Amino acid sequence: MGQDQTKQQIEKGLHLYQSNQTEKALRVWMRVLEKSADPAGRFRVLGCLITAHAEMGRYKDMLKFAVVQIDTARELEDPDYLTESYLNLARSNEKLCEFQKTISYCKTCLNMQGTTVSLQLNGQVSLSMGNAFLGLSIFQKALECFEKALRYAHNNDDKMLECRVCCSLGNFYAQIKDYEKALFFPCKAAELVNDYGKGWSLKYRAMSQYHMAVAYRKLGRLADAMDCCEESMKIALQHGDRPLQALCLLCFADIHRSRKDVQTAIPRYDSSMSIMTEIGNRLGLIQVLLGVTKCWMIQKELDKALESIEKAQELAEGLGNKLGLLKLHCLCERIYRTKGQQRELRDHVVKFHECVEEMELYCGMCGESIGEKNNQLQALPCSHFFHLK
């Protein structure tokens, strides 16, 4: 297969993919991969396969194609191709919650500065790195990376990147409990979709709606949360976007739990858990298990709650997700206080404070811990934050 034919087949695959005929598109691209003798064409088709597998939640396949793409980039001996392939490798590891590897591959990208293309990719590299630091609960570095990504987006007038960064910032502020900002950023992302997103993939709309739903739920605006989450789920189902379906099911479950409707929440958690397990989103699984634990606590089934905590703790320790561990120690503290088991209670109080220290989650002005309850925060240029009050 020559250069022109390769190009035509890649376009054919893209057309099928955009009209939701994913499996047909994959078959066309795989055929190009087998038959094309054009390295640049092979590189591009691998990029298409990586994106498609990412959106379907087939992260292990995504990683497999990213590794092949690096070999192709080396064959092409072009720093731009190499930077792009390392970014795809970083992203694949980010999706598989291998955060240390993600950070390491992102640093490789930043050290390989080729030409203008690599400079345009810097924003995406910073975003991926920020998501990885957030997965490890290293908040100051995560914020630094997101702000850097936002600067690249503004300098290159890259509205799609800006939209993605705003969603990540929404997630960031939801985790440290500044719910005003957790809502502000996804609303900004939704505005960008409305103003510039006519030709964009619908996943940008779905993504912003999902993050708005999370913030609305945290603010207790449950009807608004339900509306946004339904909108996001509708697009996720249309597009066969398994990762987003799992997140929406988790959000639905959290909304029902906030309404104390445990009977409706538990099956949603179960459905979310089975997709999270299938795609390998271990960070998502920790969130699901936290929700399930809270359901058992509402029903005063404390031993079942402790079983869920044990599973979640194993995952959080494996990933290095310190915020997950902090929340689990906090729940254990409540359970053992109710059970009157003083020794276990003290143990978890100590571990909780160790987590707060480790994450540096306290205000430099008033000394109180950050992230215990909803509080407006202000970040300094050095990315340290303090209570706005």
TrEMBL record:
<feature type="repeat" description="TPR">
    <location>
        <begin position="123"/>
        <end position="156"/>
    </location>
</feature>
<keyword id="KW-0472">Membrane</keyword>
<keyword id="KW-0862">Zinc</keyword>
<dbReference type="InterPro" id="IPR018293">
    <property type="entry name" value="Postsynaptic_CS"/>
</dbReference>
<keyword id="KW-0479">Metal-binding</keyword>
<comment type="similarity">
    <text>Belongs to the RAPsyn family.</text>
</comment>
<dbReference type="Pfam" id="PF10579">
    <property type="entry name" value="Rapsyn_N"/>
</dbReference>
<feature type="domain" description="Rapsyn myristoylation/linker region N-terminal">
    <location>
        <begin position="1"/>
        <end position="80"/>
    </location>
</feature>
<keyword id="KW-0863">Zinc-finger</keyword>
<keyword id="KW-0519">Myristate</keyword>
<keyword id="KW-1003">Cell membrane</keyword>
<dbReference type="GO" id="GO:0043495">
    <property type="term" value="F:protein-membrane adaptor activity"/>
</dbReference>
<dbReference type="GO" id="GO:1900075">
    <property type="term" value="P:positive regulation of neuromuscular synaptic transmission"/>
</dbReference>
<comment type="function">
    <text>Postsynaptic protein required for clustering of nicotinic acetylcholine receptors (nAChRs) at the neuromuscular junction. It may link the receptor to the underlying postsynaptic cytoskeleton, possibly by direct association with actin or spectrin.</text>
</comment>
<dbReference type="GO" id="GO:0031594">
    <property type="term" value="C:neuromuscular junction"/>
</dbReference>
<dbReference type="GO" id="GO:0005856">
    <property type="term" value="C:cytoskeleton"/>
</dbReference>
<keyword id="KW-0449">Lipoprotein</keyword>
<dbReference type="InterPro" id="IPR019734">
    <property type="entry name" value="TPR_rpt"/>
</dbReference>
<keyword id="KW-0963">Cytoplasm</keyword>
<dbReference type="InterPro" id="IPR019568">
    <property type="entry name" value="Rapsyn_myristoylation/link_N"/>
</dbReference>
<dbReference type="Pfam" id="PF13181">
    <property type="entry name" value="TPR_8"/>
</dbReference>
<dbReference type="GO" id="GO:0008270">
    <property type="term" value="F:zinc ion binding"/>
</dbReference>
<keyword id="KW-0628">Postsynaptic cell membrane</keyword>
<dbReference type="Pfam" id="PF13424">
    <property type="entry name" value="TPR_12"/>
</dbReference>
<dbReference type="InterPro" id="IPR011990">
    <property type="entry name" value="TPR-like_helical_dom_sf"/>
</dbReference>
<keyword id="KW-0597">Phosphoprotein</keyword>
<keyword id="KW-0802">TPR repeat</keyword>
<keyword id="KW-0770">Synapse</keyword>
<keyword id="KW-0677">Repeat</keyword>
<dbReference type="InterPro" id="IPR052480">
    <property type="entry name" value="RAPsyn"/>
</dbReference>
<dbReference type="InterPro" id="IPR001237">
    <property type="entry name" value="Postsynaptic"/>
</dbReference>
<dbReference type="GO" id="GO:0033130">
    <property type="term" value="F:acetylcholine receptor binding"/>
</dbReference>
<dbReference type="GO" id="GO:0045211">
    <property type="term" value="C:postsynaptic membrane"/>
</dbReference>
<dbReference type="GO" id="GO:0007271">
    <property type="term" value="P:synaptic transmission, cholinergic"/>
</dbReference>
<protein>
    <recommendedName>
        <fullName>43 kDa receptor-associated protein of the synapse</fullName>
    </recommendedName>
</protein>
<keyword id="KW-0206">Cytoskeleton</keyword>
